[in-house]
Amino acid sequence: MIQRTGRALLYSLQSIVVGSVCMFAVPALMLAGVLTLFTAGALVMPQVLWLLGKLTDYERHRAGKLLDLVIPGHGPRAKRLGPLLAEPGTRRDLRWVPVEMFVGTILGIVGLTCVLLPFAALATTFFWWAYPADQPASMLVDVPIRSWGTALATGVPTIAIGLLAAWRGAPGLARVSARLSTRLLAPSDKDQLVETLRESRAGAVDAHGAELRRIERDLHDGTQARLVSLAMKVAMAEREKDPAKVSELLASAREGAEDAMTELRGVLRTMYPPILADRGLDGALAAVAARCPVPVELTVGELGNVAAPVESAVYFVITEALTNVAKHSGATGAHVTVTRDVDVLLAEVVDDGSGGVDEERGTGVGGMRRRLAALDGLLKVDSPAGGPTRISLEVPCGS
User: Fold this and answer.
1) Parallel, antiparallel, or unpaired for β 334-341 and 296-300?
2) Is residue 107 scored above 80 in pLDDT?
3) Residue 211 has pLDDT above 80, yes or no
4) Spatial CB neighbours of 268, under 8 Å, sequence gap ≥ 6
5) How far is CA 311 from CA 201, 280, 366, 369, in A?
6) What is the pLDDT of residue 193?
7) Mean pLDDT across the stretch 166-183?
8) Least enclosed by CB within 10 Å: which of 16, 118, 157, 383?
9) How far apart are CA 31 and CA 52, in angstroms?
10) What does the DSSP assignment read for 144-195?
11) Max alpha carbon distance in the chain (Å)?
């Protein structure tokens, strides 16, 4: 009870402060809107909206903390006024300000009153006990017994009502205020879908660009260099008069051509491994598990027909995960499970290594996540310090 009431008291005080800030924010927004008609307004309004976004971020944080929710905030904000005003998050912020200024402040004041009500009831009870009606107010001793009856008759119900208000009323009002802020500031299902699609599209574009740069680098540094060397050796053979040296140059050129074809096949395998087309996803994963330095137990259920992009994404993600297991985990064994649940492909890679996978330290998890996001897939990493590490993925694969 004390903890709940304390949280409600803190939230009510914060609501009063936030509501007071909104009282200054409304005229500031109106002034910035008027200035927008002039040149200066285009510079002032984005700054005012940026400050408002900071205030609503704080409101999302405290409301989510009270309700044990995570309220999605703004994505990357535009810097120019036109796109900034067109963002759904900005419209939600502007809608929230007047409501918080009136309703949030009132709920905060009433909630604070509910918390203070038991103390007021105790003060009233003491007053009836200390100052009976038939004696001067200065008499604090020899109180008649009749005043005890008056104090109990008025104090007990008042204290009970005050305790009930502090126990139930104040937390209830705080939650009503938090839910109101959540309703006004949380993105709608449509907005969340648009934001998810925007992020997945950006991730797909980034992953595609990184893949193109990798292929270009492999072709430039490997295959192209060998072909240039091959052309030079052939040119030297054409100018050479000594048959023995011509034969030696042609033999070297042939070896270079074979090496170039080998590297080119390696590049092509990274684009879409031929083993997927030849043996399917289960056969390709069996080959990956067999090549892994760490013993891998592979379990593949009935997958049915899976689209080539989904097969390729799952293949590369599991390959990357097993590569990380071999390089960084210190594991003695790993287990890969791939199943299908109606139209969702599920996979899991578990190892008994040291754990502590940190996506921010370049462990390849970010690239895996972006590769799956391009197909509306999800990647979850559970890797506590000391292990085990569990990487789970879900990819829609059609009915």
Assistant:
1) parallel
2) yes
3) no
4) 274
5) 19, 8, 19, 15
6) 61
7) 84
8) 157
9) 14
10) -HHHHHHHHHHHHHHHHHHHHIIIIIHHHHHHHHHHHHHHHHSPPHHHHHHH
11) 136
